């Protein structure tokens, strides 16, 4: 249906305030619910690369990238083309028959994952990938405990939520799986202590689960010896090492997989988000032949009707090929260095606003003195045509996670608009009262 300008403005406004509320509960008055908006789907956001338009044709630079979904930008033509072509052939899996695309994708992933990872199981999302990884670790080790990180994020279904180290998400669903221990992220000693205690009391840790760089927590980069020490410890204590690459994977941090920064081969890797090229939902958990033997012994031990369907696999194969062929990973490392160094320069000049800039590649965290200032920066940027995440629950951090195909010119534009925003903020003294 044709939208009047008034309706369109109202819908966009609703979208934006819902978005703001999502990240800043209570900060903006919740004016209309999505349900009330009714014809919500009529709002079209179209885009290519790192730029998109709203229904009124106003242009934005995407600095959010669907939190790691749009690595190849909005609607990459080669990924869209691959899905369209597949749609003509077989959109959904014929359950009993072996689908060649699943095999092709698994083969491709085996080639590009570190270590001896050779098998993949495909699902629809990140949280399902983590659930599968947990189950595989339990089946293989015949143990049930996990060590994960405080402020780590692994999903919101009950298994992955038990790993997620954020009280605000966990609390409503308590009690969750027990036997899960959270340690400070990046603290190898704390992991070792936990493993030691577990061994002493005859406790049963199946795996250590960590993000290579913490995403949701605000692009937190661990010390350089963290991952190598995790690998060493997991071998010593005979527990599995699971790298949750749902957000860091497929080039986000300037390596194809985050763990490659430290040359570590995990036992199980999870992937999702960008795996589908920003066009189809798909996730995967992947592991070595030795570990996978517990799944191969009974093909029905883990199943998913639409996981790894032909459309999703076609998208993933195209996405990986584009990523490799177009040198996206190397460019991401360079763009990330450029972006981070300029942000650090800005943060140093606005030390009354910023506390830190963290990150690797194009997974970057801007850390603020408080949530309100972080929110004001996000909304100031939005007003200037830059879509960026807000701050949540006293996290005091805004992630900068643009499509990896963002241009240097777009990065410069973002930096300029950020400077304008910060200058404007300095003049609004009310933001600087203590929170
Ligand atoms: N693991 C990590 C590291 C994530 O960042 C996320 C999503 N932010 C998930 C798991 C869950 O993925 P999904 O939202 O697709 O379930």
TrEMBL record:
Cofactor(s) required, per the database record: pyridoxal 5'-phosphate
Protein name: Putrescine aminotransferase
GO MF annotation, one: pyridoxal phosphate binding
Keyword Phosphoprotein among record annotations: no
Stored Pfam families: Aminotran_3 (PF00202)
Similarity annotation: Belongs to the class-III pyridoxal-phosphate-dependent aminotransferase family.
SUPFAM superfamilies: PLP-dependent transferases (SSF53383)
Keywords: Aminotransferase, Pyridoxal phosphate, Transferase
Keyword set includes S-adenosyl-L-methionine: no
Gene name for this UniProt entry: patA
Gene Ontology biological-process annotations: putrescine catabolic process
């Amino acid at each position: 249906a044709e939208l009047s300008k008034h309706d369109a403005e109202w819908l966009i406004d609703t979208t934006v305030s819902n978005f703001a509320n999502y990240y800043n509960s209570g900060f903006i008055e919740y004016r209309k619910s999505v349900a009330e908006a009714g014809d919500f789907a009529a709002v079209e956001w179209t885009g290519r690369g790192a730029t998109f338009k709203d229904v009124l044709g106003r242009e934005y630079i995407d600095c959010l990238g669907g939190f790691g979904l749009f690595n190849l930008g909005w609607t990459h033509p080669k990924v869209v083309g691959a899905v369209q072509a597949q749609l003509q052939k077989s959109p959904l899996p014929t359950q009993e028959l072996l689908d060649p695309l699943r095999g092709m994708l698994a083969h491709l992933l085996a080639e590009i994952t570190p270590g001896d990872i050779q098998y993949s199981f495909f699902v629809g999302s990140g949280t399902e990938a983590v659930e599968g990884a947990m189950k595989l670790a339990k089946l293989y080790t015949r143990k049930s405990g996990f060590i994960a990180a405080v402020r780590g994020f692994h999903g919101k279904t009950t298994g992955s939520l038990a790993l997620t180290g954020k009280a605000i998400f966990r609390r409503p669903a308590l009690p969750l799986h027990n036997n899960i221990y959270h340690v400070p992220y990046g603290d190898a000693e704390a992991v070792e202590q936990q493993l030691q205690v577990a061994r002493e009391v005859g406790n049963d840790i199946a795996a250590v689960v960590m993000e290579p760089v913490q995403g949701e927590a605000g692009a937190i980069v661990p010390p350089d010896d963290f991952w190598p020490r995790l690998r060493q410890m997991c071998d010593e204590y005979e527990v599995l090492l699971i790298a949750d690459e749902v957000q860091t994977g497929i080039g986000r941090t300037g390596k194809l997989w985050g763990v490659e920064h430290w040359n570590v081969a995990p036992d199980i890797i999870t992937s999702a988000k960008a795996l589908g090229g920003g066009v189809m939902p798909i996730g995967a958990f992947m592991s070595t032949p030795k570990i996978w033997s517990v799944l191969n012994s009974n093909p029905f031990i883990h199943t998913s009707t639409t996981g790894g369907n032909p459309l999703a696999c076609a998208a993933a194969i195209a996405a990986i090929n584009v990523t490799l062929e177009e040198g996206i990973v190397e460019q991401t490392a360079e763009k990330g260095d450029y972006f981070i160094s300029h942000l650090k320069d800005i943060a140093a000049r606005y030390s009354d606003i910023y506390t830190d800039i963290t990150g690797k590649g194009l997974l970057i965290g801007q850390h603020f003195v408080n949530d309100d200032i972080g929110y004001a920066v996000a909304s100031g940027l939005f007003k200037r045509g830059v879509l960026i995440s807000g701050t949540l629950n006293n996290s005091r951090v805004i992630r900068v996670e643009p499509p990896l195909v963002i241009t240097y010119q777009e990065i410069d534009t973002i930096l300029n608009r950020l400077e304008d925003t910060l200058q404007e903020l300095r003049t609004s003294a009310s933001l600087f009262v203590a929170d």
